[in-house]
Every structure is written in structure tokens, then in C-alpha cells.
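Thread: "does anyone have the structure for this chain?"

Original post by V.I.:
We have the sequence but no experimental structure in hand. Need at least a predicted one for the grant figures.
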Amino acid sequence: MVTKLTLSVNPKTVAKAKKYAKQKGTSISRLFEEHVTELTRNKNSEKSDPLESLKRLKGIAKGAISDDINYKDMIADILIEKHLK
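Reply from O.Q.:
Generated one for you, C-alpha cells below.
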């Protein structure tokens, strides 16, 4: 049995969600259901963390970018290059 749920969401977020769902070939309802299921999967565990799925990605690009990079300089260089073309 499926229950209808009404949410109040920023229109820009709704537009992004619709676009994302379409790209993934699913519905916003299904995305929401999967996300909440993931968040509450270990609800009985004291160690349960709603951001666990994101934490699994931590370090995925480790070593791809040097630690001594100055991001402000990098962004400035990109913007200068973009606008000088």
C-alpha cells in the first residue's frame, strides 16, 4: 500500500529534483523513499549516522589534487582564462 505525502519544498529544489529523477529514469517519490530508507536503515543502532552514505565517499579523490594547492589562485586563474578568450 502506498500513502500520499505532501511536502513543502523550494521551487528551485523541485525543478532540480525533477531533472535528476528524469536523468536517473525514476520518480521523485522513489528517490525520496530510497533516501529515507537509507537514512533510517540502522535506526536502532546508536552509531547510526544519517551522513554515512556520504562518508563512504570521503577520500575517494585522495591524491588526485595536491594538498598545497591554493584554491583561490586556481579559481582566479580559471576566471581570467575564461574571460580573456
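V.I.: this helps a lot. The CA atoms of residues 71 and 80 lie 14 Å apart.
O.Q.: and The chain has a mean pLDDT of 79.
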